[in-house]
Design brief:
Largest sheet: 2 strands, parallel
Strand order of the largest sheet: 1-2
Helix content: 25-40%
Radius of gyration: 18 Å
Mean pLDDT: 89
Shape: elongated
Low-confidence stretches: none
Structural class: mainly alpha
Strand content: 5-15%
Number of strands: 2
Order of helices and strands: EHEH
Distance between the termini: 43 Å
């Protein structure tokens, strides 16, 4: 491999010194969702998830903190 670009690290927020000191490695903050399209879809999903929870008592998706709430 001649070079690599990373935006996720094994022990975030720490970055291994070998990566920091390697001129063939491009390191970026986690930016996978930093587009207008992705942000818009995330907002729509969140609104739909809240609406679904209020109207049906179920979530479209849940996180660990919501494990006791039904998913549907």
């Amino acid at each position: 491999i001649g070079s690599c670009g990373l935006d996720v690290y094994e022990n975030e927020p720490e970055v291994h010194p070998g990566l920091l000191n390697n001129p063939k490695v491009m390191l970026l903050p986690h930016m996978g969702t930093w587009t207008v399209e992705t942000q818009t879809e995330m907002e729509l999903w969140t609104v739909a998830n809240v609406r679904n929870a209020l109207e049906t008592g179920k979530l479209k998706s849940r996180v660990a903190e919501q494990k006791d709430m039904p998913e549907g």
